[in-house]
User: Fold these one by one.
Assistant:
Number 1:
Amino acid sequence: MRLILVTLFAALTLSSQCYAEAVEDTSRYDFVRELVETHQEEERANLELAAISKGADSWQEVMMSIIRNGTRTRMKLNATIGRLQRKRLTDKKFDMLIPYLTKMYTRKIELYDEMVQAAQTILAGPKPGVDYGKLAGHMPEITAQVEFVDESIFKIVPMVVILIVSDKPDSENHLSHFSITHKQAQDLLSTLQTGFGQSLDAKEQNWTTSSASVMRTYLRDKGFKYSDAPWK
């Protein structure tokens, strides 16, 4: 049971440097693979949009960027859902975690479907009976709903952290240790830093980066000891 919980938490922090370990035990990285990939896709989309020159035809490039990035994100989310659906948590206190995440990711796919379809319709050009003003106005609504889903995922990060707190109390009957070693924790912290970089210390963060920041805070700053530290 504890191994399964540790693997779920470790899945929150995948980066290229720990990919070799992921091949050995891919279940460890399922959750965070999506988190880091979400951050990477956000960064890529922002860079693409920023690189589009303003001009008469810039709206076409914007629509193509939306289609490209939306399709890419849908594919990654579908892969993440497939991985999650193959996992099982035996601790009934947390049996809602995987279904909840699956529901959130499914909702994001639906929203990106709407965004891509709207961009495709606009890019196709004028057609009878299509309200293009309404389509364009719907885009910000979709973005706001995606942000709401990311906020909902952010709110369950403390539960994921609880999964790696050891059930074994110390001499004062406190749960003061993680169930992972110091090295494992340092690996996770390193992966977080590699995956998110300076954005972890930014004053303004989106919900994805905030999720990573909360994890780093628990691992590094909350005073928990590691499983290989002395138990008192």
Number 2:
Amino acid sequence: MRVTRKPLEGLRVMSFEPLALSPRDAATMLAVSRRTVSNLIRSKKLVARKHGKRTLVDVESVKAFYAGLPIKQTSAPLVFGERAHVRPCSRPRRKHR
């Protein structure tokens, strides 16, 4: 005997978005460190609440912070590595004696 399944009609799938995140999840969402999230909370750029020992970061404040960041305008390449923070120098480097 073969059973055929009919698609469920009128089925509504309800999804929900959390109201708050842990600092670790907020850091993951923003692609920054947990320390950066702590600094953002301290500077009142992110809204956080306490529930006992647990810190809860407001999702809407995370979204608002991200939306308020400037958009990268230049098309300069991203540089990674040991000397990424150093600007290239137009004159040659002197050798140490």
Number 3:
Amino acid sequence: MKTYSAKPTDIKRKLHVIDAADKTLGRLSSQVAILLMGKHKPIYTPNQDTGDFVIVINAEKVRVTGKKVAQKVYYRHSNYPGGFKSITLGRLMEQFPTRAIEYAVKGMLPHTRLGARMNRKLKVYTGPEYPNKPKEKTEKTKVKAEKPKEKTAKAQAKEIPKAKAKTTSKAKKSK
């Protein structure tokens, strides 16, 4: 039996909306990473992007255990002398509540071009509202189909000569 390899035409993507309220950061991030990579699908192929789109809402309400709010530090460097900067998780959650989830998920994805493509399918929003939210279904009122307008005598008279003109021009060409 041959090993199955997913082709781009085989991949069907879904949209998952995940509510991050009162969920632990790491556990939530690992679930999101699995959905982005497509490991929950039977057609998972490591060298193909088989994952789904993921929207995380209520990012400001995500929680962490222990003293991570004060002790966990994110570092970055600007590549200039003295450009080393750091920010604690608590301060990061105050200023940019979505970045904590984005950084955690990014660390769980492959560190390649394929992982960068997977990361583009992740959208994180601070509150419960997000763009492109499906509209609520409402009852539609039936609109009566309009009857086609009857042609006036003048409109009918204009159409008849055009039809005769076409037939006469064909007759002249055939002679």
